[in-house]
Amino acid sequence: MDWGRAKNVLIYAFLLLNLVLGYQLWNDLREQADSNLDITALENNTQQAMDEKNIRVLAKIPTETPELPKIAYRFVDDTQTGKLTDLSVPVDSRLIFTPRDLTAALKDNLPDIGDYRYDEVASSADVFVLHPLVDGKWPLFKIELKLFNSNQKIISYQRRAIEISYPEEEKPQRVLSASKALGNLIENFLPEGSVVTEVELGYYGEVFDSDAHLPAAPAWRFMLESGKEYYVQGISGDVISPNTEKTKE
After folding, report:
1. pTM of the prediction?
2. Locate the Regulatory protein YycH-like domain: which residues (predicted)?
3. Which of 43, 97, 156, 216 has CB 3.0 to 4.6 Å from 205, enough for a Cys bridge?
């Protein structure tokens, strides 16, 4: 037996094993860091509840707490509202990720497309979902503009046009922090094993047919890996789970 060659083979084998183990350790540490992203912003009892219920937070927890008013909106009496409308010229679906180019491409069909924002978590391969923006910044959740995609081209759209107003009696109020809203969810509402993948501030209003102005309040949206969503009203702190159509306090 060539002991010199055997010794070299063993050395290379140990080096390879160390590389594999080192990569596995680095990957485990990275996943652990990701799964605990921003949890230092949460109170101790919330972190304890996370451990007990095996809940992970993979989303960045926003620190902003702006002062926002409640708003009102109504559905505009438009002959095209709610109907599927074909685009005069199909648009490359890749433009959905470049808002400025998308606005330029769709402005003839949808002149106010710049007042909407793409919602990646609510979209699918065939349907892109956008929400109207309040003050050009905050998405009005549950109100949707849908762009239908086929063969990598946006070919049609569907929406219910709305008009937003600001009741004089509604004064801006400081919204609840995302960390407190999430803490309430973790401790009292989220099921075991939940994985929070997205946290965003916007507006939430009831969606039903009416000619009257409908109220909408600031709300934090929390998306889970399972696809379930929760909303926490930014002023009252009420928890809304549209999947069950039940409001909880």
Report:
1. 0.80
2. 100-233
3. 216
| Residue 248 pLDDT class (50, 70, 90 cuts) | very low
Mean pLDDT of 111-129: 94
Phi/psi of residue 69, each to 5°?
-90, 160
Q: How far is CA 206 from CA 8, 74, 143, 168, 216, in A?
A: 71, 11, 9, 20, 7
Q: Say how far apart CA 227 and CA 249 lie, in whole Å.
A: 22
The domain made up of 77-160 is a member of CATH 3.30.310.160 = yes
Q: What is the CATH number that goes with domain 41-68+167-248? A: 2.40.128
pLDDT tens digits for range 138-181: 999 999 999 999 999 999 999 988 999 999 888 999 999 999 99
- Show the CA angle centred on residue 232, arms to residues 215 and 140, nearest 5°: 45
Nearest-angstrom CA–CA distance, 91 and 152: 9
Residues in the chain: 249
Taking the C-alpha atoms of residue 184 and residue 214, their distance in angstroms, rounded to an integer, is 27
Q: Each residue of 83-107: pLDDT tens digit?
A: 899 999 999 999 999 999 999 999 9
Tell me the Cα Rg of the chain: 24
Q: CA–CA separation, 133 vs 23, rounded Å? A: 44
Rounded Cα distance, 139 and 137, in Å = 7
Number of neighbouring beta carbons within 10 Å of residue 190: 21
Q: Coil, strand or helix: which one is 153?
A: strand
Tens-digit pLDDT profile for residues 25-48: 444 444 444 444 556 678 889 999
